[in-house]
Amino acid sequence: MDKKLMLIVNPVAGRSAYKPSFAEATLLLAQAGYRVDLYYTAARGDATLFARDHAAGYDAVACIGGDGTLSEVISGLIQLDNPPPLGYFPMGTANDVATTLGLPKNNTLEAAARMLTGTPHPYDVGLFGGHEHFAYIAGFGAFTDVSYTTPQDQKNALGHLAYVLQGMARLPSIESYQVRVVWDDGEYEGKLVYGSMSNSTSVAGIVHFKEQMVSLSDGLSELVLVKDPSALADLANLAGSVLTQRFDSDTMIIAHTKSASFQFERPVAWTRDGEPGGLWQAVELKNLHAPVQLIF
C-alpha cells in the first residue's frame, strides 16, 4: 500500500446507512492501494478539526455523512495550504451536493467505487460573514430551516418527502424581510421572502436548478432573491415555478456573482448547508474560487 486515505465517518448520518457495506468498501479501497485510517465524529465540528489537523499527511480524504459533514470537512481543508482531494460518500437525507455531483447515495460500496474511478475537480466554496464557510448554500427566509426543524422521526420515516411536506405546511405563514442587497452588477431594496447564495443544482432536496445554470468552479455563485408576493396565490404559483424549474417569475431575481451583501432592518436567521447559521443584521457572502478539489 503506497497511498494513505483519511476516512472521516459521521456514524449517525442517514440512520447509519453506511454500515451494511462498510467492510466491503474499506476492503475495496485497500485493494486499490490505500491504507485507510478511520476518524469517527462524536460532536458538531469534529470533522473540521480532523481535516484541519491531520489531512495534510494524507494523499486523499473521504467523508461518510450528509451535506453537513461534507461542509465541516471542507471548512477544515481550506485552512491548509495544499489540501488533498476529497471524496464524498453521501449518507444524509437531502444529499444536495451528491445530487449535483451525480454521486451514489446511501451506499458505501458504490461511493467507494465511484471515488476510485473518479477524478479530482476544482470546487468553489462560500465565505460567510468573513470567517465562516459554506460548501454549497447560505440562505434565509422561506423553507431555509426545513432541513433542521423537520422532526427526526419524520425524516426517518419519510426521507426527502418529509422536507417537502414540512415546506408546504409553511406556505400560510411565510414571513417577509425588509432588506437591501448589493451584488457584483446589481442591487435590490425591498421585501424578500427568501434569499440565498449557492453553488449547487439542488437545494434542500426540493429546488433543482438546470445544470446549465450552475458551474461549480467558475468563481461565481448563484444569487437567488424572491420578492414578497402580493397574495398567497402568487406565492403558491411561485413555488410551482421553482419546483418545475421555470425561473421566469417577476418575483424572482437570479444572478451569478462573486459576492453579495445583505443589510436588514433587524437581525435575521440564516442557515449554512442546512445547519443554523446564526442571526445577522448585516452580512457579506463571497465566492472563494476553487480552494478544494472534490472527487467525482
Q: How far apart are the first and last residues' alpha carbons, in Å?
A: 22 Å
Q: Within the CATH hierarchy, at the fold level, what is the topology of the largest domain? A: Tumour Suppressor Smad4
Principal-axes shape call: elongated
Low-confidence stretches: 154-165
Overall CATH architecture of the largest domain: Sandwich
What share of residues is helical? 25-40%
Mean pLDDT: 86
From the alpha-carbon coordinates, what is the Rg to the nearest angstrom? 19 Å
Work out the count of structural domains. 2
Question: What is the compact description of this entry?
Answer:
This protein is an alpha+beta fold and 296 residues long.
Secondary structure layout:
Blueprint: E1 3-9, H1 22-31, E2 34-40, H2 46-54, E3 60-65, H3 67-77, E4 86-90, H4 96-101, H5 108-117, E5 120-128, E6 132-134, E7 137-141, H6 146-149, H7 152-158, H8 160-170, E8 177-183, E9 186-198, E10 202-203, E11 207-208, E12 221-227, H9 232-243, E13 252-257, E14 259-272, E15 275-295
Parallel strand pairs: 1-2, 1-3, 3-4, 4-15
Antiparallel strand pairs: 5-6, 5-15, 7-9, 7-14, 8-9, 8-14, 9-12, 10-11, 12-13, 14-15
Helix pairs in contact: 1-5, 2-3, 7-8
Index terms:
296 residues, elongated, 2 domains, two-stranded antiparallel sheet, Tumour Suppressor Smad4, Rossmann fold, alpha+beta, 27% helix
Any overview of this molecule?
With about 300 residues, this protein is an alpha+beta fold. It has 2 domains: about 5-120, Probable inorganic polyphosphate/atp-NAD kinase, domain 1 (Rossmann fold); about 130-290, Sandwich (Tumour Suppressor Smad4). It contains 9 helices and 15 strands. It has helices at about 20-30, 45-55, 65-75, 95-100, 110-115, 145-150, 150-160, 160-170, 230-245, and strands at about 5-10, 35-40, 60-65, 85-90, 120-130, 130-135, 135-140, 175-185, 185-200, 200-205, 205-210, 220-225, 250-255, 260-270, 275-295. The strands form 2 sheets. Strands 1, 2, 3, 4, 5, 6, 7, 8, 9, 12, 13, 14 and 15 form a 13-stranded mixed beta sheet that branches. A two-stranded antiparallel ribbon has the order 10-11. A hairpin with a 3-residue loop joins β5 (about 120-130) and β6 (about 130-135). α1 (about 20-30) runs parallel beside α5 (about 110-115) and α2 (about 45-55) runs parallel beside α3 (about 65-75). The longest helix is centred in the C-terminal third of the chain and has 12 residues, at about 230-245. It is elongated. The protein starts with a strand and ends with a strand.
